[in-house]
């Protein structure tokens, strides 16, 4: 019986691997002359999401957003993609529908599945307008002919068909649905923290399949390739930020300075470079939401 079940599961995986979510209805073709207001709003979201940090290979002098930055994980090393306006190696030839599908569903224009090293499980929560505004801004980025570097991932995780069963258990399609029991400020903060700034991608532990353990949201986690773990930013008074005030969180998001006078280090310092450009109201909204997260007693840096 175990052998039969195993064959059945494998057969199901192979069938599902050919079944990507349907492309959304056409919105418009590739942007030619983006609306200035959309570009402005998209630039704001771009800073909040800190896109430049992951998609720029600073260590090797890479062009902005030309990709190639190594992203170490438990499954091997992924390399960020070129998201400049280059039509061959970047996203210059993408339509709006292509871009929506990539962020909402984690599906590339050719129908292949993205790995969660690209945080589409968080970006899926963004609104259509915000996704398209981000697209409008990226369309203004100078093109770079940088070729995308192949990922170096161990077998069998390098097989994109593995993402099909992964998504069945670990992906909840957006967009974000506001909580009617919470204030508009709290909901704005939840949206920015979880969808745009995707804080949980670093601060939430992952299971053995690399999926975020939502029941331990913001409990702190190791970051492959980094000396220090992402700290516990839940409401726990001992290991988290339960003793911090909302203003304390706002200060960190503005200047990187913590209540004890110390300052955050990389990669959080890079995040702060983006959150410092947000409006005071948006930084406070994020702080209001983060301070409401249930306490998690997990020790920062624990497995």
The helix-and-strand class reads: mainly alpha
Query: What fraction of the residues are assigned to beta strands by DSSP?
Result: under 5%
The rough form would be described as globular
The helicity comes to: 25-40%
> Could you state the oligomeric state of the chains shown?
single chain
Sheet with most strands? 3 strands, antiparallel
Number of helix segments?
A: 12
Strand order of the largest sheet: 1-2-3
Give a count of the beta strands, DSSP E runs of length 2 or more: 3
CA distance, first residue to last residue: 35 Å
Low-confidence stretches: 1-31
Rg, Cα atoms, Å: 20 Å
Quickly count the domains.
2
- The residue-averaged pLDDT reads 86
Order of helices and strands: HHHEEHHHEHHHHHH
Textual characterization of the structure:
With 303 residues, the protein is mostly helical. The chain has 2 domains: 169 residues, no CATH class; 107 residues, Cytochrome Bc1 Complex, Chain D, domain 2. The protein is 37% helix and 3% strand. It contains 12 helices and 3 strands, in the order αααββαααβαααααα. Strands 1-2-3 form a 3-stranded antiparallel sheet, with no helix packed on it. Strand 1 and strand 2 form a beta hairpin. Helix 2 crosses helix 6, helix 10 crosses helix 11 and helix 10 packs across helix 12. It is globular and about 50 Å long. The two termini are 35 Å apart. The N terminus is likely disordered.
